[in-house]
Structure formats: C-alpha cells, structure tokens
Model the fold of this input.
Amino acid sequence: MFGRQKVVGSIPISPPTMKIALLLLLTFIMGCAINVPYDAKHNWNKSNYLLYDGVVAITIKKKRHWCTGIVLNPDFVMTAGHCADPRLYNLLYITSGCNDITAENCTHTKVVLAVPHPNHKESGPIWNDIGAMKPMESIKGITSATLTNQIETQSTINLAGFGGHEGKTGILWAGKSKINHFWAYGFETYLNGKNGPCGGDSGSPAFDEAGKVVGILSRSVRNKKSDCGGIATYTMPAMYIGWLREMNTIFSATNASEADDGS
Done:
C-alpha cells in the first residue's frame, strides 16, 4: 500500500509542485460536487443523470452501449484506453443528457477522434489504460470534471457508469466503494459479490467525496452469471496530466470538418 500518492507520471514530486501541476490542468477543466445515494450493502442504484451530467455513455451507432466516459470540457471526453479504439471511432457516439441511452431526451454526438494513450497495453504491470475522444459537436449543458490524486487508502469513493447492472447496459447506475490499495498509476477497490462495476462500466469515473475524479475504471474481475465483479482496477488520470493537456491542445486545434469522420 502506498497511502497518499505523491507521484505524477514516474517522477516523485513535492506537494507544492504537485499543486502547481494540478492547477495547470484545471485551466481547462472545471469541477462539480456530487451526492450519491446508496444502501448499507453498497448495492448500486439507478441514478438521475442530473447528479452525473458529466458522465456519458459511449455507444456504437447510438444503439449499442460500448463504454462509459467523463466530460473534461465540451470538446473532450476521457475514457479507458481500451474503449478509445481508433478502429471503431467512425462507429462511436457520445450519448449525454439522459440516464438511459434509449430515452428520447438523449443527445448523440459523433466521435471524430478516438485516441488511446500511446503506451496503452492490454497486459503487463502498467496498462496506461486511459483514452481521449473528441466529439463532432461540443457537448453543451454538461458540468465538466476536476481531477485530483489527493486520495488515501480506505477512502470512500463514489462510482457512476452505464454498465450492465441487472443484465442491461446503457442505464446510469451509481454506488460507493472504498480504495483497498494503490499501485503505480492507479488503485483497486473491492466489493463483495456482484456489487462492483459491470460490463460496460469501463471508462466510468470514481469521484472523491468532494466530487473530483480520482480514477477511471480499467477492468474488473467479473462473476460469469452477473457480468459484474467485486474487484475493480482504476487508472488515476491525474497521473497523466501532461498527456491530457497535449490531447486537449490537439482537440482544440482540430475542427470537426478537418477530422476524418469515416463517412
């Protein structure tokens, strides 16, 4: 266990330097606070999207749920690296403004750029499982996220995603968990039974009690019957500040008409 994290990338830094680095990231990321309903057993509950308007579904052709993402700014959605598959980007849409991807009040915005971290791997000790997506049109009316790596072992975190709870994906659910231990670029949580993240929750955010994003779901050990798992591994996006800023610069300089939309 590492306790409180003091590392950005692979370089240990002092708390003042870390604060400056986080403030630099916040020049393009705004924040919100969140209150999550949950019961004593940590079961997930269906959630009103207004509590999580920055949590979005990533769908294939607006119909099939693929992954979950979090809005960093109107032109930038962060998700897991394995979700930002560049081979699929011309099929992907960002679905926002609703808690069920089949609802009429959903807004579906085509993805024009999908970029996994250049060092993303599907196996090994460090996966770098973080990715970025640019929508064709700015996502409006959404509260953008704030990132932090100020979190400790046994801290309570709030979870939200569009994964397959009760056997159906594409519906927003929320719950709570606790951080069991840290690893170099992330942390793990554990919930007994089927109460952890489910299939389709990849890329979904974990928030601290102040509503700041401390992690995005990389993967979970699933129960074959429920497609949900108790053990979940999260990537800490604050460890990738430099890359996120680089992608934000690229997205800001790229017009949707300049990106290849695959049409």
